Every structure is written in C-alpha cells, then in structure tokens.
Amino acid sequence: MSHSILPPGWSLAESLVTPESVYWSRRRFIRTSAAAGAALALGACGSGANGETNARTPPRPSGPLDTIPETPTRDLYPGTRNPRWAVPERPLTERIVAATHNNFYEFLTDKARVWENVGPFEARPWTIEVTGEVENPGTFDLADLEREFGLEERIYRLRCVEAWAMTVPWTGFPLHRLLSKVQPLSSGRYVSFLSFNRPEQAIGQREQPWYPWPYYEALRMDEAMHELTLMTTGIYGDPLKKQHGAPVRIIVPWKYGFKSPKSVVSLQVTRGRPPTLWNDLQPGEYGFFSNVNPDVPHPRWSQATEELIGQERRVETKPLNGYAEWVEGLYSREVLTTLS
Ligand SMILES: Nc1nc2c(c(=O)[nH]1)N[C@H]1C(S)=C(S)[C@@H](COP(=O)(O)O)O[C@H]1N2
Ligand SMILES: [Mo]
After folding, report:
1. The pTM is what?
2. Which atom of ligand 1 lies nearest, measured to the CA of 263?
3. Cβ of residue 67 lying under 6 Å from some atom of ligand 1
C-alpha cells in the first residue's frame, strides 16, 4: 500500500468519470431507499431518508440522506433565505448529488462512498472552544450559538481545487458574530480552525495515519470577519449531514474548498500566521490563501474551467469564484496573481 500523501487533486482523473460514479451512487441509493421503504411497510421504526431527525443514527446509514444527526435546534431549520447571496447563472446541485460527492478524508478518499462510513461519528451534542488572542475565551455549546445568532440560508458556489464545482444552499450564521462575541484583541491577526480527532469514530483517521490529523485550516482576521464567511450548520434546509461536516463547518466561498474545514471543534485567534494542512503537505501546490483563480493553474492541471457535478458540463471558473466585487479589496496584487 502506498503511504505517499495524496493531495486534493490526486484523483483528478477520477473526476473525469464523475457522472458515472454519480450514476452508480444513485443506483445504490435507489436500491437502499427501496429497502428502507420495505422496512417501513413492515412497521420497523424507520430512520427515514427524508431529512427527519433520527432517534438514533445506526452505524451504517440506510442511504446518503439518512446521515443527519439528532439536532436540538431542529426547529430553526430551514433558516431565513438571504436573497443577497444567490447564484443566478446556474441551477442548484441536487441534494443527492451533493450528498454522494464529498471530500472528507477523515472517513474515506472515495467521494461517492464517504456517506457510508459516517454512521459512527457522533455529531451532537457539540461544543466549540475559542482560545488565543481574545478578550472572552470560552467553550460554547453549538445549539446555544445557533439560538443566539439565528440562522439564515445562502446559496453559494463551491469550487474544489480539483476543478469541480457545486451550487449549494447552506444554513448558518456569519463567523463574525462569534468573533465579535469573544472580542479579538488587536494582537489577534489570524484565526485557525481544528476539526475533530476521533479515530474510533472515523475510519479514515484510523486507517490513514500518514495524514497529520486533525485537519487544520486558517484565515487572516479580515477574511474571517468578512460577511461572506459562514459558520455553516445546515444544507438544503436541514441540519448538516455528517458527510458535509456536521454539525458545524466553515464555508469561505471565494476560496478552494479545502479552506472550508468540516466538523470544527475549536478556533484559536493568533498573532502569527498559523500552519494549514495542505500547505504544509504540498507547499508548491497549495498556498495559504488559495483564492479561486482561473488564471493561476495548479502545477498539475488548469483551473480555467470547472465541472458542474451532476450536470455533466464544464463552465468557466470566475475570479474569486464570482465573489470578486466583495473580496478583491482584501488582497495585494501579488496575492491576486500568484499561487499564494
Ligand atoms: N475536516 C475536513 N474538512 C474538509 C475536507 C476534509 O477532508 N476534512 N475536505 C475539504 C475539501 S477538499 C472540499 S472540496 C470540501 C467538500 O465539502 P462537501 O463534501 O460538503 O462538498 O470540504 C473541505 N473540508
Ligand atoms: Mo476540495
């Protein structure tokens, strides 16, 4: 078995056959939903593949949509749609397509089958610890934060560095709400994020020990405070499915997807620039900023176009993923024109 590091683009060739893998995962879904339907007809206490909260999530989900953890804030979903953030030029990705095309290496590197492995992961209850250069550090219950800040729905483009893309309705609250609550000191110039570390619940953490778990990412303070940066707790009007990073992940829509860490357990506000996982593993391929830029190719492939997953077509990639008018002012020319 190879123990070499497999960077986000290792399976690019596979992405060329994605319509087929989507097709096969749909077949599997149709089969498993039929089985779930039969179980219901027999009076089994079904965990429906319909987005309902499950009393207990079984070790193996019955289908890709059956991975929503029991959520104490279920009544807050769907959040209020914020019409300011829409993607008028292309349709939403279908929820089953999004649920069966995931990068979540803590579970599996095969995107079509991540969902099959997330059952043992306990996504609620959940706390977020905030430490570092802040006035009010603390550990916050996610449900309390959701109630305090309220939830809104925003449709964003999602662009993976592997040159595929989706169009997704996320639910959440802006990260700046949480940061304002803890009050960063003037010495706090960056925010780093840590994902969970539970090898007993995540087969990919057990079986791929060569990745430096837990997943770690970071933003500059102005990026973290930007209105677009979303603490994301839901997708398609429901709480996040586990394969999308339940119960809370960051979404930074103008950056490549790996800058949006899933299942985040802590934030640290720091003086210096924190290390980030993919930049540490392959600095020549993945920069700290990693803003979407069609004019700067990855060293191994072009970033000029992207495949819209589930639609079997490619479109041109937009500078800063279509968010240039809101975020271009954050960056120097150097950052905007190079792999940085
Ligand atoms: N903890 C963690 N976060 C992660 C990843 C991961 O493997 N682990 N993959 C990233 C990548 S490469 C992408 S493209 C997006 C995919 O999000 P989605 O599966 O919800 O579409 O999650 C990002 N966040
Ligand atoms: Mo990605």
Report:
1. 0.87
2. 1
3. no
Query: Is the CB–ligand 1 distance for residue 105 below 6 Å?
Result: yes
Cα atoms found within 13 Å of the Cα of residue 249, Cβ hemisphere only: 25
- Residue 167: CB within 6 Å of ligand 1? no
Whose C-alpha lies nearest to ligand 1, atom 10?
258
**What's the CATH code of the domain at 46?**
3.90.420.10
Query: How many structural domains does the chain have?
Result: 1
pLDDT tens, residue by residue, 167-206: 999 999 999 999 999 999 999 999 999 999 999 999 999 9
Q: How far is Cα 58 from Cα 44, in angstroms, rounded to an integer? A: 13
Closest ligand to the CA of 105: 1
Beta strands 164-174; 152-159: pairing state: antiparallel
CA distances in angstroms from 154 to 87, 233, 269, listed in the order given: 9, 12, 26
* Closest atom, ligand 1, to C-alpha of 8: 12
Within-domain flag for 3: no
Q: Which residues of the chain have pLDDT under 70?
A: 1-58
